[in-house]
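Schema walkthrough. Field components (list of strings):
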Amino acid sequence: MNKKKRITIVAWSMIFLAAFFILIFSYIPMIQAFFLSLKTGKGANLTFNGLANYERMFRDSTFWTVVGNTLLYAVIQIPIMLLLSLILAVLLNDPRLKGRGIYRTCIFLPCVTSMVSYSILFKNIFSVDGFVNNMLIKFNLIDAPIAFVLDASWAKAVIIIALIWRYTGYYMIFYLSALQNIEGSIYEAAQIDGCNAFHSFTKITVPLLKPIVFLTSIMALNSTLQLFDEVVNLTNGGPGNATRTISEYIYDLSFNFVPSYGYAAAVSYAVFIIVGIITVVQKGVLKEK
Amino acid sequence: MKRKVLSLLLATALVASVFSGCSTKNNGVNKPVDSKTEAATATDAPKTEEPKDSPAAEPVEITVWGWDVNFNGAALQAADELYEGATLNFVEMAKADALQKIHTVLASGVKEDLPDVVIISDLAAQGYLMSYPGAFKAMDDVINYDDFASYKKSAVSYDGVGYGVPFDTGVAGLFYRTDYIQEAGYTDEDMQDLTWAEYIELGKKLKEKGHLLQTYNPNDISEFQIMLQSAGTWYTDDAGKANFVNNTALKECIDIFKQFNSSDFVKVASDWTGFAGAINGGEVACVIRGSWIASTIKAAADQSGLWKVAPVPKLSVNGATNKSNQGGSSWYVLAEGKNADVAADFFAKTFGGSTELYNTLVEQKNIMATYLPASTVAAYEKEDPFFSNTKINQILASWIAEIPAVNNGAYSAEAQGALLAVMPDILGGKDIDSSLKQAEEQFNQTVQE
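Field assembly_structure (string):
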């Protein structure tokens, strides 16, 4: 008993330190940010103004544009990316595949590159005189170069391609580790019962991976809703506001424009609320089945 | 076995990521620190010796936050050499970082470890002066604002009080390739005081000879700054309200951009690399920018002797001129800084009163400032072989006093943002008036308290 108690005390004291710092550096600023979001004014001239910032958000066309852009990235990029990483994980989990460790590493490598450097790389590849245009012209697919990052739709596409390139390998690792926890005997039993590869994927692999699918989709959604570096470096939000994300708008409101710290905090809380709602919905949908 | 190989590879990847993380951090963060220590040691050196020579002088250290150690830092260094009683410590940061850091430090209300002086770009200055009342030291009693170009004075003042010490100019010029325009049948005289219509005509003629007029980026309307100021107007009126819908100059800017957009004589460049590459690679004949572009043009040493400068083209609206400005920044003394009074005195005796300093700046660093008594210093007489042996600095400096003064207000970034948001529609053929109205609504949303 005495020993157990001591272990509990040791455990709590270890957790306490971490919890203490998380409280100071994470939760208290969150609460402070909420109070800040109730203030209006420019720079240091802030006064309490109730929910004025939240009302303003509903009338702010730029806010809705950036929310729309961000959600569009999420809706297109996350399913493609997660499906790709799932397929890749299943392929690379096949024990008969030679050199799969090398393939895994190669596919994982993009996500260890710095966000800024890979964005600049993509910007160069897709620039007017860049690699993609040169190739397309060489193969006579187009006559004149396409200004990818200067066209509203192309710019969005370039950002989505860049995101998929970088993060597919990252989520593949999650699926790989989950796949290795599935007993091989289940597949063997299914095979004996006459189950083909497609069916063992849809009937065994996918259902058993459900918790991981949920986890990865929440993680991907979180990172996409906070998307900043890629867009700033690739297109700087342009053309117009066509690729601007919520995070970039928050940055603009705080540092690029005459600062409206209160409103910027309110927009941050809007992201928080959106993530909360989507998480609850997602959890509900996945539980139903 | 295979799992071992995989784990090994993953571990290597992880280690690689740690290192790549470090290296990017090195690029971004350590460099400024390096130059900071460099600047510190450079300024420290005289500091340790000075007390021996003049024991009366207290070694006061003035800390300055700014960007570009070769430009702003070099100017301070030169001023430091002329001033006794303080040494300067220039802390270099990237421009965006510096401007952001000033915001955070002033908004947080911290009083310790404030710098004594910061540099702020003129277009952003009003926003800082408005946002943080009392943060900056009023300089009306310290320097004589009549000594500076009038457009600069209005940029650094707020509510009738002068705060900043005007520094560098962004006097705008039309830089052109003499060889290309000669091929198109133009002489240097033809290039003086063009209108925008004539300038576009030049583009068509250049195209016939296989050259392009200039670069064009539909997502960057910073050239509007030059056009608007040359006509003595701005995105906002004196009260800070949007001046879009009834602004004939702005409409003409948009019209010129539309012509560029549908033309075949401009080089589309989506970023600075493409922009500078087109100039240095000899693809374009002209570039219209603030005087600071000269160093970018000179980066192509093989084009020495081929460039000249002329006044910028003129709009057709009332009050339009061939003189304008783009960019430039000024020094601000923080009222709560430890050495505010010494810093103010430093500026009064150097940037606010020493023609000798400005002579050194022009001579050694090609830095042109807005201090009018210095517009005739000897260094301006120097001919520049790169610019066809013309006295380029003198030519540019002679325009400074004629630049129309405009009230930039605090909301230039917001206005540009709102206009950029509707530019794709306008370039796509949507009605200008209704688009401007839409931009005005968006602007009003952004600037509300």
